[in-house]
Amino acid sequence: MENLFVSMAAGIRSLLGSGGLSEWATDFLVMFLKLGAILVYILVSALWLVYMERKVSAYMQCRIGPNRVGPMGLLQTTADIGKLISKEFIIPKDADKKLFLLGPILIFMPPLAVFAVAPFGKGMVAIDMNIGVYYFLALASLSTVIIWMAGWASNNKYSLIGSMRVVAQMVSYEMPLILSIVGVIILTGTLNMSDIIHAQENVWFIFLQPLGFLIYLIAAVAETNRAPFDLVEGESEIICGPFTEYSGMGFAMFFLAEYANVVLVSVMATTLFLGGWLAPFGLTFIPSWIWFLLKVYLMIFLFMWFRWTYPRVRVDQLMEFGWKVLVPLSIANIFVTGIGKYLYHSLGW
Amino acid sequence: MHFDFSLLTTELSMFILGLATFVLGLVVPSRSRRGIGAFALFGLLAVLGLTVLNWDQQGVLLNGMYLVDRYAMFFKILCLSTAILVIFGSLRYVNEHLGNHFEYYSTIVFATLGMMVIASAGDFISLYLGIELMTISFIILVAFRSQDGKSLEAGIKYLLQAGLSSAVILYGFSLIYAATGTIVILEVAHATLQGQASPLLIAGMVMLVAGLGFKVSAVPFHMWSPDVYEGAPTPVTAFLAVGSKAVSFAALLRLFVAGLAGVHQQWDILVAVLAALSMIIGNLVAIPQTNIKRLLAYSSIAQAGYLLVGLVTASPAGIKAVMFYSFLYVFATVGAFTVVAVVYNKIKSDEIADYAGLVQRAPLAAAVMLICLLSMAGIPPLAGFVGKFYLFSTVVSGYLWLVYLGLIMSMISVYYYLRVVLVMFRDDPKDPAPIEMGSAANITLIITMVATIFLGIYPNPLSEVANSAAISFFLK
Amino acid sequence: MDNVYSLLAFVLLAGMILGSALLVVTLRNLVHSVLWLIVMFIGVAGTFLLLNADFVAAVQVLVYAGAVCIMLVFGVMLVQRPNMEHSNPINWRFKLAAPLVGGLFIVIGLLTAKSQLVVSGQEVPAQTVQALAPILLNDFVIPFEVAAILLTVALTGALLLVKEVKANGNGS
């Protein structure tokens, strides 16, 4: 079990090798397959997360949730996607047509590209990048512009207001997100995700960086534009924000991208703070990738819990909280971490 | 690694002063903010004292990336004196026209810090960041009167000019780096002195001439300066005309005479042509001006031409002449602009015609204006004459045409300087009420006047100081 | 360029950078210009990646494509126009500009071709990030600190200018 995927990859590699392919072509094909597998995982996972979200919210509100299509309603979201695909994709007359169409296509790119460096289990990372964490931050920042582009291209006042909110909110919360991760990087001295996980063999960083984890969590919720920070698509004020004019599959793409982003920030939280695929309490008989997924879905559940517990904040509260509370706190966290590490070293522990 | 912090005393104290000014401004209640100017002034005086005390301290930091020698010290003292005179002469102007914002003083301190970094920079990156620190501070200062359309226009123009010239300078740096493989100026000097001049190095050198040509507002890179000088608050204009120009010359000397000495044959004619163009255009276009600030702007373009003459030969005498001239230029220019500021305080106009009969309304201001303008024109026995004598004597052998051109243009400049003097002394004032100027401005004016006359009659001390600084420039 | 693939990648990236930069300047719609600018920055990041400078490439994406362009977006949104058509004023003085710029380009290209470039023969270090801290905080500490002061001044200055406008607006 532990080496299920690793040995699968090795098997494919040897199969291709025996087929007479050169080493370079084999590497290329295996890499392609790895990335394809990740793509499939993300899409399926985004699909099922919609179902999970509906179920979680239903139980929190003493309802049952989807229960008709398939066993326990498991096929509900699949049916929904089928419906959305068959719907007409309406392009408003005054929209900037090319940009309007580009939006839903590009929105999936940044999260997918980041997943290439995520370590899903022991030895299960498609590209073990030296600057993994930084790569995640760099690419995640691109989503902002894509959403803004889609909102602007719609040529609708709600879309424009929503997209300006996206820009303001995501830029403001990128700061604490990055700064909260710096604490972990100070402790490990590396940006490589596998190395960061290895550094947590004795103690998870959530215990060494509790403040960092908390700030990361809050900033991550804001970065994924989810409640209580979902002003971007605050239904009661601006209908659906940047996505107002999108119908059919275009809307579904944005909807699924949100869940892909939730998976992404949960994967990062797991890697950086929860010990990645390391098993707690020496329970190593459970494979590492199962541990990893368990932790990721725990984080996702936490995000859903937030969403159905807290009411939406106001724009000015959001900005004030970001710049006046989270940013100073995260800088203080870096400061304390740096001094702590220095003391730790000088005391010779 | 050994790092001698004592070499950075002046920069560090300047940094602390800037921060202290800013924080103090935030902390004290708004009605007692008047004292911030005095605080910054005394702080600058203290730093000036520290710099003079450290005159003999010499050293090289970080393998030539930061050079602390007398040459750098000389320019640091020059910038500090300019900042002190500018702040002292315009305390009232700032109160009345700039809303008495404490940021004004801290920004001036940081601009001066940028100038100090330029004077000491020994590599391209420090030099570039010093230039940017100075320029960005100046953008803020130029646009300080943001209710005034002209000030904003000047700010935008200065911003565009700064962006353009920075891009050109950076391109030049990168080409030189590609040709020599180093960013440290002294290592570039080694590379150029040993090897043949690679074509790429020449391209980079041309870029540097153009980029720094913007900073010193030499023709044909001068378009921005009249508009910016006119729109900026007058004390800022004085600071811009003196400090920014002087340290840009410091950078030019450091880059060309120290760094690119090996390709002197390739750049001397380029600089000579720029000098000639600046002298001709600056002086000729100054003649029809009706606004005193624009007139002084064109005159400062011409002064840039004179200063470039000292660069042509790349000799110690030329460096000494540039340093000497820029130091006395401080007094002449700050004096003239302080008069403009105090007069503007009263009559709210910068038109030359409104200066009619100034001698009856403010005799001291008129006298200082007279002395400063005559010094700029180079009339003996004032300081400007000595400065021009030093500058042009360096090029007598080899560039005699430049000397003749300079003499002719100096004579032309007398015409438009005297036109202002004529208006002040001959015409009758429209409103004979005396202009009272405040004691701080009075003292500044007296200092500039006395210095200009003194340096003209007895230039030896400053000349010797400049000489020893110029010699330290070559001791590497 | 050690092999044909990196040469091919370089040519493609250079085409992408130059093409999108040209579009930034010539397009009539300011929003399209900003978006092409992002493409240009990503192309530059690709060039850095080609040079094995992965950290610089990520910085390029995070700072330029992710943050600087967002600032530009704010700027664009403050442009008071009913629609964004013709919001990027261009004077089409191509007859003057094109020969001038083209000539300059050819001259610099010729000079580059004629001269010997200094190439450092060092190996690319396996860990590109760890070496940065000593470089920034030892060798380049003075420029580093000057940059810090520069940013502080720029920040306070920008705030000052904006605050002033607001106070003025309230007063009038």
Automatic annotation (TrEMBL), chain A:
Its main location: membrane. It catalyses: a quinone + NADH + 5 H(+)(in) = a quinol + NAD(+) + 4 H(+)(out). It holds the Pfam family NADHdh. Keywords: Cell membrane, Membrane, NAD, Quinone, Translocase, Transmembrane, Transmembrane helix, Ubiquinone. Its EC number is 7.1.1.-. One of its GO terms (molecular function) is NADH dehydrogenase activity. GO terms for cellular component: plasma membrane. It is a multi-pass membrane protein. It is found in: Cell membrane; Membrane. GO terms for biological process: aerobic respiration. Coiled coil: none annotated. The chain crosses the membrane at residues 28-51, 99-121, 133-153, 173-191, 203-222, 259-283, 289-309, 321-344. It comes from the Bacteria. HAMAP family: NDH1_NuoH. NDH-1 shuttles electrons from NADH, via FMN and iron-sulfur (Fe-S) centers, to quinones in the respiratory chain. The immediate electron acceptor for the enzyme in this species is believed to be ubiquinone. Couples the redox reaction to proton translocation (for every two electrons transferred, four hydrogen ions are translocated across the cytoplasmic membrane), and thus conserves the redox energy in a proton gradient. This subunit may bind ubiquinone. NDH-1 is composed of 14 different subunits. Subunits NuoA, H, J, K, L, M, N constitute the membrane sector of the complex. PANTHER family: NADH DEHYDROGENASE SUBUNIT 1, NADH-UBIQUINONE OXIDOREDUCTASE CHAIN 1. Belongs to the complex I subunit 1 family. This is NADH-quinone oxidoreductase subunit H.
From TrEMBL, chain B:
GO terms for biological process: ATP synthesis coupled electron transport. InterPro entries: NADH-Q_OxRdtase_suN/2, ND/Mrp_TM. Keywords: Cell membrane, Membrane, NAD, Quinone, Translocase, Transmembrane, Transmembrane helix, Transport. The keyword Phosphoprotein does not apply. It comes from the Bacteria. It catalyses: a quinone + NADH + 5 H(+)(in) = a quinol + NAD(+) + 4 H(+)(out). GO terms for molecular function: NADH dehydrogenase (quinone) (non-electrogenic) activity; NADH dehydrogenase (ubiquinone) activity; quinone binding. The keyword Membrane applies. The chain crosses the membrane at residues 12-28, 35-53, 73-95, 102-121, 127-146, 158-180, 200-224, 236-257, 269-288, 295-317, 323-344, 364-386, 398-418, 439-458. Its EC number is 7.1.1.-. Its main location: membrane. It is found in: Cell membrane; Endomembrane system; Membrane. GO terms for cellular component: endomembrane system; plasma membrane. Residues 121-412 form the NADH:quinone oxidoreductase/Mrp antiporter transmembrane domain. It is a multi-pass membrane protein. NDH-1 shuttles electrons from NADH, via FMN and iron-sulfur (Fe-S) centers, to quinones in the respiratory chain. The immediate electron acceptor for the enzyme in this species is believed to be a menaquinone. Couples the redox reaction to proton translocation (for every two electrons transferred, four hydrogen ions are translocated across the cytoplasmic membrane), and thus conserves the redox energy in a proton gradient. NDH-1 is composed of 14 different subunits. Subunits NuoA, H, J, K, L, M, N constitute the membrane sector of the complex. Belongs to the complex I subunit 2 family. This is NADH-quinone oxidoreductase subunit N. The gene is nuoN.
From TrEMBL, chain C:
Gene3D superfamilies: NADH-ubiquinone/plastoquinone oxidoreductase chain 6, subunit NuoJ. It catalyses: a quinone + NADH + 5 H(+)(in) = a quinol + NAD(+) + 4 H(+)(out). GO terms for molecular function: NADH dehydrogenase (ubiquinone) activity; quinone binding. It is a multi-pass membrane protein. The keyword Lipid metabolism does not apply. GO terms for cellular component: plasma membrane. The chain crosses the membrane at residues 6-27, 34-51, 57-79, 100-120, 140-162. Pfam families: Oxidored_q3. Its EC number is 7.1.1.-. It is found in: Cell membrane. It comes from the Bacteria. Belongs to the complex I subunit 6 family. NDH-1 shuttles electrons from NADH, via FMN and iron-sulfur (Fe-S) centers, to quinones in the respiratory chain. Couples the redox reaction to proton translocation (for every two electrons transferred, four hydrogen ions are translocated across the cytoplasmic membrane), and thus conserves the redox energy in a proton gradient. This is NADH-quinone oxidoreductase subunit J.
